[in-house]
Amino acid sequence: MTSSESGSTRRLRCWRLALGLLMIFLAGCGGAAVVRDHGAPLPPAEREATWLGQWARLSGSPHPGKSGFALLSSGQDAFSLRVLLTEQADRRLDIQTYLMGDGQTTRALLHRLLSAAERGVEIRLLIDDIGAVGQGQQLAALDSHPNIQVRVYNALSVARGTLAGRVLASAPQAVRQHRRMHNKLWIADEALAIVGGRNLGDEYYSASEPRNFTDLDLMAVGPVVEPLTYSFHLYWNHGLAQPIGRYHRAEENAWSGLKESLDAWFLANADSPYFADLRQRYADVEQGPLLGKLHWGEGVALWDSPGKPAWRGRPALGNTMAGELLELVGQPGAKLVLVSAYFVPGRRGTQLLTDMANSGIAVEVFTNALEATDVPVAHGAYQTRRDALLDSGVALYELRAEHDPDVDFGFGVGSSASALHIKALGIDDDRIFVGSANADPRSVWWNTEVGVLVTSQGLANELQSLTEIGKSPALSYRVGRTESGSLYWETLQQGETVQLMREPGSVWRHGGAALSRMLRLEPLL
Fold first, then answer.
1. How far apart are CA 56 and CA 192, in angstroms?
2. Alpha-carbon distance 58 to 81, whole Å?
3. How far apart are CA 461 and CA 432, in angstroms?
4. Is this model's pTM higher than 0.85 or not?
5. pLDDT (mean) for 448-464
6. Helix, strand, or coil here: 187?
7. What's the CA gap between 109 and 250, in Å, rounded?
8. What is the CA radius of gyration of the chain?
9. How large is the angle between the packed helices 104-118 and 254-269, nearest 10 degrees?
10. With contact defined as beta carbons under 8 Å apart, do 216 and 196 qualify?
């Protein structure tokens, strides 16, 4: 061995030792031996014997073979329905989410989940491991209840206390650790399901100040719930889903202490402005029922393979949910409306949309403005595709960060500041897709997603009405070009139509977008 080789070997060993010591330092508590049971769907007789099962069966009896759907555009309604389902469930609640924030809506839901578990309801919570950072002990305490199981997806056994530590510890496994479970599902007694863009956190339910997300869920009953339930079980039973107890230890009755603290918190906060407003909202007879008319039609549940985060390299499009959706949607007859919080079409997506527009299809895109987005680097990748889209006739609308509080938004965001978080498609006048996937490479290639494609003219009309409100000049910018080729942002200010010649947004937002373009981050966004 040469002296050079010997030096290289010593340096390699030093790096390995340093990395090993770092991992030990970050570890906190290592994995423990915890039994991991295989989950299975409820027998049909048990599902149909529940109150929700009977309600779903009676509601669907005039519509054989069809599923019933309702859009949840209001954050308050989306939260209240989850509470109601927790109260009405008899056998099981399955919850799949990307993240869980610590706020009043999350605490209220945990409070009700523990109460449901106390009366015998089986609770299963599956959360992406990134969304569990810093919440390990609380989740372990929740999991200690005999009727509650908590699992984390694509987990690391180290650096579980802070996001910064987690990012650092993820570096050796960056190829896999940047891929996440982005699915959102809420399934009650396997009779009713909610799918869409909302995680667990105040900003998704119009309970945050000063800013909330404008979001959308799809509530479903009928045949489509069965495949959605099946998708949950595929993820729940997959090897990437691990019990929280393997990473965080809790006393056998830790749940009782958690329940006591939540009981005390709820007692002290029961009359908070948000909860008081909810009571008034549903006491008002003019508000009507929590759920309006159900739209009946065909529903196709779609989801990514639960093993996708562990696949080597970029998958073939045909092996992704996005590829399956693209095949099912086909070529629209006359119109396509795409609503996405993060719109990063890339070369292939841009070509697809411009080809549609050039063939005479009316293509509209509704996304966040630079001033509204919470991820400016994603907006930077969209900026590079904007000219080509506009040249082909694609209509671009961007939600403003602020809107007039007197304007009826239709989404119940609860404040004058908002950011778009919806992931939806409107295809012609009779089909819509609502799910967890954005129109970006991350949703197509790297994350796992779930959604439902619905054929229903009534539901399509409702989505169209909501997007028309969102695209209005009082709430959004219409991006256009002058004869000289310069971009402008047309909107309404103090009742007057204006054209802004500089893209609205702060210096740091423009800087983040520019950094994205400079580093060519588009494939990862």
1. 7
2. 19
3. 9
4. yes
5. 97
6. strand
7. 21
8. 24
9. 130
10. yes
